[in-house]
Amino acid sequence: MNSSRPLASAATPSRPPAARFRRQTRSRLLRADLLTVIAWASVSSAVALWLADGGAAGFATPAGSFTALGIVAGLAGMDLVLLMLLLVARTPLIDGAVGHDRALEFHRKLGKPSLYLLLAHGILVAIGYGMAEGLDPVSELVALWDLVPDMWLAIVSIGLFIAVVVTSVVTVRRRLPYEFWYAVHLLTYAAVLTAIPHQFSVGGLFAEGTWQRWYWLAICIATGAALAHYRVLEPAVATARHRLTVSRVVTEAPGVVSVEMTGRHLDELAGNGGRFFIWRFLAPGSWWHPHPFSLSAEPVLFDSSGRGRLRITVRNLGRGSAQLARLRPGTRVAIEGPYGLFSTAARSRDRVVMIGAGIGITPIRALLERTPFEPGKATVLLRGHSEADLYLRDEILELCRRRGATLFHLTGPRTAGEHSWLPEAAVHSGHRLASYAPDIAGSDVYVCGPDAWARSVITAARAAGARDEQLHYERFDW
Amino acid sequence: VRIRAAVSAALASAGILLAGWQSGAHVAETGNTAATSAAASSGTASGSSSGTGGSNIYGPSGSTGSSGTAGSTGAAAQAGTFAGTAVPTRFGTVQVQITVQAGAITDVTALQLTDNDRKSVQISNRAAPLLRAAVIKAQSAQVQTISGATVTSAAYLTSLQGALDAANR
């Protein structure tokens, strides 16, 4: 079945500033580039610290060469570890420039290189020191553990790093439970903390009185402060300030519920429709389980005091989500966020195409409510097996009618064989993305849905001429 | 956009590395002289441990002779100066020279001390006067190692034992 319902009616004549979006995108891309440059510069700075200390003189002897390479590997490795921590610190600077999921992607990409560098550091230094003393690397490690203060901590640290990276890789492949992965990841903090003492007490580069020591201290403390501030302090403040409590749980479709929460100062969260928060429902048995869900509507304010209502719409996907259907009104809610770039902050054009599938429709619904566009310059495509899978479809129809957006319902079974984002019937009729959104090359494209489906949409959008800065796709993972 | 980021990142990195390398070339020259002067001055430093502030838990350990022969300068020791063996460590080579008069160690001079990096030089500068004073007091290589300078102390005392062996030969 493929039913399409183009709708258009004039309303809300707020003029969307195309120039503003262009400027906003230029500045966002500039910030992303700057962050890239800073990241690389920090790695080369770590090596430059050592060069500036005359470290290259170590290459005069074979033993010195091993030690020198080992020190460089250690400096670069630690720098990458700090970058990884910053990428998951959820700083507004990084989140606003590249988005939460891209930050996590970089974080994952750095995992193995930093582990290899740290391993190389340990092995090369053991060989270099060993050669200087006429010991084999293993005896040298034993001697270091025994004789040199803080070295045993460093050796423990490398073991922890190995454990963290190995379990992360295995978790991703085998899909181990999130809780297990989370517990192991907490070990990262132990690994980093145990690695730090030897850098300052044994590392000659960071001896007392050197400027290198101050630089290294500064970046370590800055990273720790960013983590503490954005991952602990801000969520605690937001939770206390908004005082969210569950007010109602509404069943939208079989297995799909909307959770409505009331709270204070919700005017401050306006404009975040489509972005996600990490929710913790403070009830016995579920308070420790973090749920990353997007708002499925803009905050609704009751009066001018800022008191109002938030809503998320969730499908029963895992053990944790299943509990949400049984949430009792009055349950307190802790929040972290909002995060991500699935919002007006990512707009680059005055036209917009929003494409959602399954439960991925819900952030599209929230975005549609507030993101600026002139009547006729927005298109909404909803994909599901049947009309019943197009969650919140009545609300979306109403919003499209009010704001003058074109709406298509794309329902029916998917194609056999090669995966297409369109239903089989539409593919057979020769429909493509441009059939529904002819201006796709000049539009922002927001995509939310299952991974493989979303990739297929992105490919279609690229083929139709949309550039990277126009494609907005956020995955839901940690 | 990607290209712009990559090019600027490469340029910035190259610039930073070049600056580091340039200033490193200076340090290498001055660093070498600093290390040698540190080794020399530690030899002539006064025997008192005041001013260094380090944990001076030195003194004769008495028990467990780690080297079986010639724990101290006996009457047989000849007068003169004797260089000890050069002991390589991961932080640099250590070698000491002793001055023996009338069968007693009257001075210990460090010919080389751990000086691979600034931290090692710092540790050497702190440990050498303490070790020298302890050795002259104990008249043997049987003194406790300086905490925080374990590697330097061990090498220092090994080299010292070599010098004592030479004096007793």
Q: Which descriptors apply to this entry?
A:
heterodimer; A: 478 residues; alpha/beta; seven-stranded antiparallel beta sheet; six-stranded mixed beta sheet; 14 helices; 51% helix; disordered N terminus; B: 169 residues; alpha+beta; four-stranded antiparallel beta sheet; 4 strands; 49% helix; rod-shaped
Structure description:
- The complex is a heterodimer of chains A (478) and B (169).
- In chain A, a hairpin with a 2-residue loop joins strand 2 (244-253) and strand 3.
- Chain A starts with a strand and ends in a 5-residue tail after the last strand.
- Chain A has 478 residues and is α/β, with parallel strands linked by helices.
- In chain A, the strands form 2 sheets. A 7-stranded antiparallel beta sheet of chain A has the order 5-4-8-2-3-7-6.
- Chain A has 14 helices and 13 strands.
- With 169 residues, chain B is of the alpha+beta class.
- Chain B contains 3 helices and 4 strands; from the N terminus they run H-E-E-E-E-H-H.
- Chain B has helices at 2-44, 118-138, 150-168, and strands at residues 80-83, 87-89, 92-101, 104-112.
- In chain B, strands 1, 2, 3 and 4 form a 4-stranded antiparallel beta sheet that branches.
- The radius of gyration of chain B is 21 Å and the shape is rod-shaped.
- Residues 31-75 of chain B have low confidence and may be disordered.
- The chains are: A alpha/beta (478), B alpha+beta (169).
- Chain A binds chain B through residues 29, 32-33, 36-37, 39-41, 43-45, 47-58, 64, 67, 128-130, 132-134, 140, 147-149, 202-208, 210, 468-469, and chain B through 1, 4-6, 8-10, 12-14, 16-17, 19-21, 23-25, 27-28, 31-32, 88-91, 116-120, 122, 148, 150-151, 154.
